[in-house]
Design a protein that fits this description.
The protein is α/β, with parallel strands linked by helices. It has helices spanning 39-43, 45-51, 69-75, 108-115, 145-156, 164-178, 194-209, 211-220, 237-247, 288-311, 317-321, 324-338, 353-364, 373-377, 380-387, 389-397, 403-416, 427-433, 438-449, 451-454, 457-466; strands at 30-35, 59-63, 81-87, 90-96, 99-103, 122-125, 183-187, 221-229, 255-257, 262-266, 282-283. The chain has two domains: 30-283, Rossmann fold; 288-466, N-(1-d-carboxylethyl)-l-norvaline Dehydrogenase, domain 2 (Orthogonal Bundle), CATH 1.10.1040.10. The chain is 45% helix and 12% strand. Bound molecules: D-mannonic acid (CS2).
Length: 477
């Protein structure tokens, strides 16, 4: 007979918190200013900068968007955080040290000071697709309520702007006043021609405030286009606990990402840049083929899985992909997208689409990465313009139906009927549209994504027929 000895539970040992004294690392001088301090910035641009051979010369000052929380948590750790690379076979941990200042986005004065400093050479942006406030015509929507509010504040000089665009424009005005010279703005949001989008949004906002500033920006600021890629779900409490258990310190801001990362850039850096190529970044003359490959195949499939998957009762990308109905929809969409992808110099073989598709299936099925469909589903009216509309248009121009791309839009419409969970810059307009019925409802919802397509009765009919394919979440009251 064995005797079980019961001992009192060990008192919890308070582990030291991650900091630069715990993990000695010098602070590089600030030469990059980032807007949109979130998990993706840390797993991507901050990680590329950390791995550059000249990392000691390139510190990042990163500003949050709406809330200060991420900056407060990171500032407690001198900007250090753990990147957990989560593969099917296990985790690996790296302490990333390129962020040297983490600042509340509301501190517009500090932003202006840093952007106006001659040492600052690069401004990177991950402010979300929707934050560029572009209308369906590709220009800044000057009627958007937050744009109107910021322009009024800027005109009266009575307060700080609250949108990332307004804040950036104010900071660029400070650089102009300081005569600190040109720099590069690098858009890292998932938009086609994102350099042009950022240009149109920033110059649009500046021009509505001060035409001279808009002219100065045009002459001095280089807008670099990029295609960014790394699947980075939101950090959970379990992730924080895993880092603590594995690394022997407390880190309140770890970030979890897949091992894969990709960054393609195109444009000028008039004041220099880090050697991001050391970490695998690629500089190209013509970015469009790479951008379309990523936006259509990866992000397009993501959005399709997000809407279809939620309608089918799934929570994560891996779960949705394991559902044959969702997988089949993705494969069909990929076939349509692939038919319209031309490679650099018109050579599609360069894009290695079969290998890219196979790699995506493996990346999406990584069940250790719990990538929530609800996170991807947000801001659909903006995302679908990049992910579904170009494929649908190209298919129809080629005389085909574009049914697989149309199905993504139909699933978004079905999803939008679940008003409570539907997060979108046009959520109230979508709610209005959902009060209509039949073709009128479809036309109104499609008009939020692409007014021209909404004017095509054949497209409206196609989408109407496809609605309900994955079931319905709720009937709008
Ligand atoms: C996703 C992207 O949330 C989304 O819309 O499609 O964040 C995606 O995970 C990244 O672009 C991957 O690089």
């Amino acid at each position: 007979m064995s005797i079980e000895l019961k001992s009192a539970p060990e008192p919890a040992v308070e582990l030291p918190q991650l900091s630069r004294s715990l993990r000695p690392s010098a602070k590089a001088p600030v030469r990059i200013v980032h807007l949109g301090l979130g998990a993706f910035h840390r797993s991507h641009q901050a990680w590329y900068t950390h791995l550059s051979a000249d990392a000691a010369d390139w510190g990042i000052a990163a500003f949050t968007g709406r809330r200060p929380d991420a900056a407060l948590a990171l500032a407690e750790q001198d900007g250090l955080f753990t990147l957990v690379e989560r593969a099917d076979g296990g985790d690996s941990f790296t302490v990333v040290s390129s962020i040297v200042e983490a600042v509340d986005g509301a501190d517009v004065q500090r932003l202006a000071e840093l952007v106006a400093a001659p040492a600052t050479a690069v401004v990177t942006l991950t402010i979300t697709e929707a934050a560029y406030r572009l209308g369906a015509d590709g220009q800044l929507d000057r009627t958007a309520s937050d744009v109107v509010a910021d322009l009024a504040l800027m005109a009266s000089g009575s307060g700080n702007p609250t949108t990332p665009l307004g804040r950036l424009v104010l900071a660029l005005a400070a650089r102009r006043t300081a005569a600190a010279g040109p720099l590069a703005v690098v858009c890292c949001d998932n938009l086609s021609n994102n350099g042009t989008v950022a240009h149109n949004a920033v110059v649009g906002m500046a021009g509505a405030w001060d035409a001279g500033l808009a002219g100065w920006i045009d002459a001095n600021i280089s807008f670099v286009s990029t295609s960014v890629d790394r699947i980075t779900p939101r950090t959970t409490d379990a992730d924080i606990a895993a880092v603590q258990a594995e690394c022997g310190y407390r880190d309140n801001s770890p970030v979890v990402a897949e091992p894969f990362a990709n960054w393609v850039l195109s444009g000028d850096f008039p004041a220099g840049r880090p050697r991001w190529e050391d970490a695998g970044a690629v500089f190209v003359a013509d970015i469009e083929p790479y951008e379309n490959r990523k936006l259509w195949l990866l992000n397009g499939a993501h959005s399709l899985l997000a809407y279809a998957g939620q309608l089918r009762g799934h929570t994560t990308v891996a779960q949705a992909l394991a559902d044959p109905l969702c997988l089949q929809a993705v494969e069909k969409f990929w076939d349509e997208a692939e038919a319209n992808l031309s490679g650099p110099d018109g050579n599609p073989a360069e894009l290695q689409i079969p290998a890219y598709r196979a790699a995506l299936l493996a990346r999406f099925s990584n069940a250790r990465i719990a990538h929530n469909l609800a996170q991807i589903a947000m801001d659909g009216s903006t995302k679908l313009r990049m992910r579904a509309v170009p494929v649908l248009r190209a298919e129809r121009a080629a005389g085909r139906s574009g049914a697989a791309a149309a199905l993504m839009i139909a699933a978004w419409m079905d999803d939008s009927a679940a008003a409570a969970a539907f997060q979108d810059p046009l959520a109230s307009e979508a709610a209005e549209a959902n009060r209509l019925s039949g073709a009128e409802r479809i036309r109104a919802l499609l008009g939020l994504v692409d007014p021209a397509l909404a004017g095509d009765p054949a497209v409206v009919e196609l989408i109407a027929d496809l609605c309900g394919t994955f079931g319905e979440l709720a009937v709008f009251p």
